[in-house]
Amino acid sequence: MAMMLAVIVVSSGCSAADPQAPPAQDPYSAAAVAWGNAPQENAGTTFQPDVVIVGGGGSSVRSVTADGFTWTLDPEAPNADSLEVGSVMFVTGRGVGRVIDLADTDDGLAVTVAPVEITEIIQDGTYSSLEPVPLDQPVMHDMSGAFWADPEILNEVGSEPLLDESTVPEASGSAGADEGIELASVTRPAPGAAPDLSVPTLPRPPAAAGKVAQAVTTQTGAFALSHTCCKAGTGMDFSYDKDGLVLSGKVDLKMQAPSAQFNLDISGGTLRLAEFKINGASTLHTELKANSTPQPGINKASTPLGMDVDFSIPIANILGIPFSLTVTQTLTVDIFMPGTAEVNSVGDYKLGAQLGMRYANGRFTSLSGGSFDANAAVRGSSSIAVGLSGITVQYSVNFRLGIGFAGFSAGLDFTIVVLVSASVGAPIGFNPRQDAESPIEQCKNARGVLKVEWGIGYTIPKYLAEITNFFLKFFKSKPIERSKNYHGFKVVDHKDVTYPESGFCK
Fold first, then answer.
1. Per-residue pLDDT at 175
2. Helix (H) and strand (E) counts in the chain
3. Per-residue pLDDT tens for 133-160?
4. DSSP secondary-structure letter at 80?
5. What are the distances in angstroms from CA 326 to CA 234, 405, 463, 475?
6. Please, which residues have CB within 8 angstroms of residue 387's CB and are 6 or more apart in sequence?
């Protein structure tokens, strides 16, 4: 494979001595914060022939749908008239994708795009961070209302059922995220034709402009969520109170002076080398409390929470490409309780100070380490119930270095996935077994899984691909795949502990 070229990071995308260098951009200008930084022509980058750079950056953007697929532009923006179905629009670091529809509207030129991978944008270029990029001044994007994060739509495509629902499958998960359902074919009506009211529609409200912030509070169904990122790490707090079930909890990925480093080499439209490192991770802590009032047994699970918020750290243009490091957190909660009960769960992971991956010579190498403190999880779990109670929390934090919108950004992708599960039985009472540690035993089980996933391009859950393809069918666009380009994963740690190891519990 080709060797890495010289490491170049310059704020304007060209050498300071180059009289042809375009003016330096402020990644925290009002237009850039709202919709992303602008791309620039640069001798160090060769774009694919069908890429159209629309001038003006965020100043040319009039509105964006919350799902990120339709960008309404100033029709007078430079090169906007060169866009056509099949070309790749590149207006900002978030506004990039293959054009699947163009429409003149009263608000401007509405351009609907589908996700692309990085090699569909860049033909040749080598990009690298000379120094670690600090994650201390993120731009928060609230995408509330995006159809791919709508709980009811997630249920329709087979994701875990929402806690709000009254009919829920067993905890073993007969409606797991990888099952889904076949989506009906949707065709776009001909111009001037009456709409077919039998065709299901998707909500497409406008997106709020980005703003510099390290915290935001959102609401998904009956869940109240607080998201934080990134100066001291990432985290999500959540609460739920409905129909006699009260939940509260948090997940914190603690980091010290977090930063990122990356290398990306593309030659002839082919990925040659990629490296992505997240520095400063230390521990990950989870807590969850639940109690229920008198009612039949509870056996419920949430849809993925947090998909409609991301935090993006803009990186000064590298050879004309306005890269950003984007962080998205997702959380799911699964609980079973025998009527009136109270259950608590905790979990702790120790992480390696450096997390990440490297791709070279056609192979991936994991750069991550960590371990789950299962004994502490067992000691910290408790229940007051007449039968077995249990809670499972799965949390993922996704770091993406690239260009594009939300989870579809093209570039380098790295995700930490942790699962903490606690099962607690009712106190058994007198235990006649000779090997029992105590005449009154309460059996506990704790399970922890730490996994890392990585890719170049994008990798999304099946339910998200299903929803997106439902949308793309409306425009008669070919469906996207769950993953583009290269991807892989590694289970870093997996522990399953029962306490006490005596008597009935053994």
1. 27
2. 4, 28
3. 999 999 999 998 888 887 777 766 654 4
4. G
5. 12, 9, 21, 28
6. 297, 338, 341, 425, 426
Q: Tell me if 317 sits within 8 A of 327, measured CB to CB.
A: no
CA distance 118 to 189: 32
Q: Write down the residue that tokens 């953007």 correspond to.
A: 61
pTM: 0.82
Sign of CA pseudo-dihedral 305, 485, 88, 191: negative
Cα 217 from Cα 10, distance rounded (Å): 35
Q: Which of 497, 492, 491 is nearest to 447 (CA)?
A: 497
CA dihedral 92, 93, 94, 99 (to 10 degrees): 60
- Between strands 51-53 and 88-90, the pairing is parallel
What phi and psi, each to the nearest 5 degrees, are found at residue 434?
-65, -30
DSSP 3-state of 435: coil
| Residue among 454, 486, 411 at smallest CA distance from 115 | 411
In tens, the pLDDT along 200-212 reads 567 789 999 999 9
16 three-state secondary structure: coil
**Distance between CA atoms of 99 and 84, rounded to whole angstroms?**
7
Distance CA 89, CA 113 (A): 8
Q: Which whole-number Å values give the CA distances from 30 to 13, 26, 34, 433, in the listed order? A: 20, 9, 6, 71
Write the CB contacts of 229 (distance below 8 Å, at least 6 apart in sequence). Answer: 135, 138, 140, 214, 215, 235, 311, 327, 329
**Encoded tokens for 338:** 């025998």
Q: Torsion angle, CA of 100/104/108/114, rounded to 10 degrees?
A: -10
